[in-house]
């Protein structure tokens, strides 16, 4: 992304930091991460939003996008992909994102999280991890720096029979989600972008 341009001028919906005087940036553009989410009823999007907020607190420039409409990862310094798990596999938008962009993801820092069972019991979470790993196993070139599964949300009002008779539940562990975001920061800060530069490096002049 070019320095000194507004989101409209930049053409991609993201603001570039303008220099205070002259055309040169006083500070190099902050490393930009893509946080893409595949969510059917909104709970995964809420988690992705929380992850994005936490990463911004750590100093990252974050572009939060629906995975179904997300741009190519090229040009970003790292990617966080979040997906809901349905019927034993990730959301179709997440699978499509991986299928289209796995070659680019293989060249950059990547973190993946999934929203799994309605109970945050280790046995249930382990089953969801197996489901996620089965999908990721199709892309040997993608090696996530961090991979995590969280308890999900059951809202009977959004489900079809017979699942709409299940009790409502929200097993999201927000402390664990914040810890995940902190781990992404630590892993990505010491990793390398496609250009070979340290992702977390900021060039102050």
Helical segment count: 5
The total of beta strands comes to: 8
Helices and strands, in N-to-C order? HEHEEEHEHEEEH
Catalogue the unreliable spans: 1-28, 201-205
How would a crystallographer describe the biggest sheet? 6 strands, mixed
Distance between the amino and carboxyl termini: 19 Å
Helix content: 25-40%
User: In terms of structural class, how would the helical and strand content be classed?
Assistant: alpha/beta
Morphology call: globular
Looking at how many chains there are and whether they match, the oligomeric state comes to single chain
**Compute the gyration radius: what is it?**
18 Å
Query: Averaging pLDDT over every residue, what do you get?
Result: 77
């Amino acid at each position: 992304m070019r320095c000194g341009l507004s989101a409209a001028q930049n053409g991609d919906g993201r603001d570039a930091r303008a220099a205070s005087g002259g055309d040169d940036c006083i500070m190099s553009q902050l490393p930009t991460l893509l946080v893409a989410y595949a969510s059917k009823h909104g709970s995964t999007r809420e988690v992705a939003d929380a992850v994005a907020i936490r990463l911004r607190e750590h100093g990252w420039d974050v572009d939060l996008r629906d995975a179904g409409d997300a741009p190519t990862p090229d040009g970003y310094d790292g990617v966080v992909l979040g997906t809901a798990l349905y019927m034993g596999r990730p959301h179709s938008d997440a699978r499509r994102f991986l299928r289209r962009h796995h070659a680019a993801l293989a060249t950059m820092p990547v973190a993946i999280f999934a929203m799994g069972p309605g109970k945050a019991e280790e046995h249930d979470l382990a089953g969801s991890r197996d489901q996620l790993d089965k999908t990721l196993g199709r892309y040997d070139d993608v090696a996530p720096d961090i991979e995590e599964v969280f308890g999900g949300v059951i809202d009977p009002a959004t489900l079809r029979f017979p699942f709409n008779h299940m009790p409502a539940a929200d097993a999201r562990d927000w402390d664990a989600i914040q810890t995940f975001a902190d781990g992404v920061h630590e892993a990505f800060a010491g990793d390398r972008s496609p250009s070979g530069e340290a992702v977390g490096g900021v060039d102050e002049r």
